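Z., the sequence and structure:
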Amino acid sequence: MGSKPFYRRRFLNRRGHHAGAFVLAECKIETWQDRAGLDAFVTIADCSRVVTLDLSGATTSEISNALFKARILRDTLVDLTATLERMADDVLGPRSRG
């Protein structure tokens, strides 16, 4: 088990906007009762709203489901980003995005 733990915290807003928006993601291998598993989560905060998604698992089924959830989130955010970019171009013009 040579995988290094993953930890990332990023602020979601640019300087000058509300400072309380962030994403925090963590994934590491843990041992529970002599059995390895994944301890993983992602927390998304925007002002006073905070949600944490549990992506942990100790069994094949739990880890498979965690991967399923993460892939759905990834694909949804990729599609949302592409749509936001198109709509921003419609509203602001293609050179106004940043």
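Strands lie at 6-11, 22-32, 35-46, 49-54. The two ends are 41 Å apart (CA to CA).

Let me know what you think.
H.
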